[in-house]
């Protein structure tokens, strides 16, 4: 088997609680192994522990326990080797907004020890590759969000790293800019054999880009595999029922649970989701039962298993519910 380019073994990280709050265990035995040339997607809602993992693997933070290796180097013992082997594109923009695109790239190249002429060559090459040739001479503050993000990724590539870390690379981008970056990430892994660790809370992004997907929940990897394999493990169909009124007393849930071939019923506001052996036979039965009890329904949809269903299976809640629960938690 090929040597893993990335390894995280039983990582634990606890943050001290702010002002009388209890300590927070951000990572709770997180483990994964990624072969060279693979895009690992770390998928999880806000607060799942994705950024903490990236910080530990990029030597910016230390785990309380566990080990991690990047390109064969230990993140504690061989920090310099790890830093040389990696490119890191943080969540927040990293380019100097007052400098031009080319100035940012040149500075980065010089910091990584390239000669002036090599730095110019590399900067020109990267501007071209990311379609930023024309904008290269302009101050970065005049760039669109998508252009800034492309420059951030270009900055992470100046020294030709073997492993690239992209922390939520497309958050806040419009669909077109997101699609552009997806193509670029695919090219890096496909044509250049680069190993990429990408964190995301977009199911669609994980589905499209991840050669290997790790679903992270409460600081642990709860499911791992290719998106296709994870979806294929779920047999049958998913049924989603939109009710006019939320099922606050659980009547509808109980009603559905009695029907044959229906399981894993989850209530999410006005929506009930369930797994069924066959959508074609389950839907008439569901509609009949609801009609009998005069429960008004807005819509019923049947779909093949999605990553959201995979998430639901392994965490017991839908991805959307996990995201909004976390946002509420943060606001409290
Ligand atoms: N420096 C810190 N001090 C205290 N708590 C922290 C710190 N950094 C992260 N946390 C907490 O640790 C948990 C995991 O955070 P982390 O940023 O790793 O999650 P994430 O999955 O990357 O989320 P997001 O998608 O929002 O970036 C969260 O509850 C977060 O509030």
Automatic annotation (TrEMBL):
InterPro entries: AAA+_ATPase, ABC_transporter-like_ATP-bd, ABC_transporter-like_CS, DrrA, DrrA1/2-like_C, P-loop_NTPase. One of its GO terms (molecular function) is ATP binding. Pfam families: ABC_tran (PF00005), DrrA1-3_C (PF13732). GO terms for biological process: daunorubicin transport; doxorubicin transport. The keyword Transport applies. Keywords: ATP-binding, Nucleotide-binding, Transport. Belongs to the ABC transporter superfamily. Drug exporter-1 (DrugE1) (TC 3.A.1.105) family. This is ABC-2 type transport system ATP-binding protein. It comes from Kribbella caucasensis.
């Amino acid at each position: 088997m090929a040597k893993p380019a990335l390894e995280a073994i039983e990582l634990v990280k606890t943050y001290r609680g702010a002002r009388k709050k209890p300590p927070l265990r951000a990572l709770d035995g997180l483990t994964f192994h990624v072969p060279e040339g693979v895009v690992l997607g770390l998928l999880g809602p806000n607060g799942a522990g994705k950024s903490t993992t990236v910080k530990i693997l990029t030597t910016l933070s230390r785990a309380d326990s566990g080990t991690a290796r990047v390109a064969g180097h230990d993140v504690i013992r061989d920090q310099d080797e790890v830093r040389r082997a990696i490119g890191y594109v943080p969540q927040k923009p990293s380019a100097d907004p007052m400098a031009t695109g080319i100035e940012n790239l040149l500075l980065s190249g010089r910091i990584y020890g390239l000669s002036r002429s090599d730095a110019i060559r590399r900067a020109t090459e990267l501007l071209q590759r990311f379609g930023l040739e024309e904008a290269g001479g302009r101050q970065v503050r005049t760039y669109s969000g998508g252009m800034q993000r492309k420059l951030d990724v270009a900055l992470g590539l100046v020294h030709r790293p073997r492993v690239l870390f992209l922390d939520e690379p497309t958050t806040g981008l419009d669909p077109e800019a997101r699609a552009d970056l997806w193509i670029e990430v695919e090219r890096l892994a496909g044509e250049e054999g680069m190993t990429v660790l990408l964190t995301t809370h977009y199911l669609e992004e994980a589905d499209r880009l991840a050669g290997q997907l790790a679903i992270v929940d409460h600081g642990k990897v709860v499911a791992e595999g290719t998106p296709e394999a994870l979806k294929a493990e779920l047999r049958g169909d998913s049924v989603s029922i939109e009710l006019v009124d939320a099922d606050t007393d659980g009547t509808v849930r109980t009603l559905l649970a009695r029907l044959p071939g229906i399981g894993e019923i989850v209530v999410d506001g006005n929506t009930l989701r369930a797994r069924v052996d066959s959508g074609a036979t389950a839907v008439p039965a569901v509609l009949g039962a609801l009609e009998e009890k005069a429960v008004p329904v807005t819509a019923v949809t049947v779909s093949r298993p999605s990553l959201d269903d995979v998430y639901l299976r392994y965490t017991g809640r839908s991805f959307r519910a996990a995201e909004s629960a976390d946002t509420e938690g943060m606001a409290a």
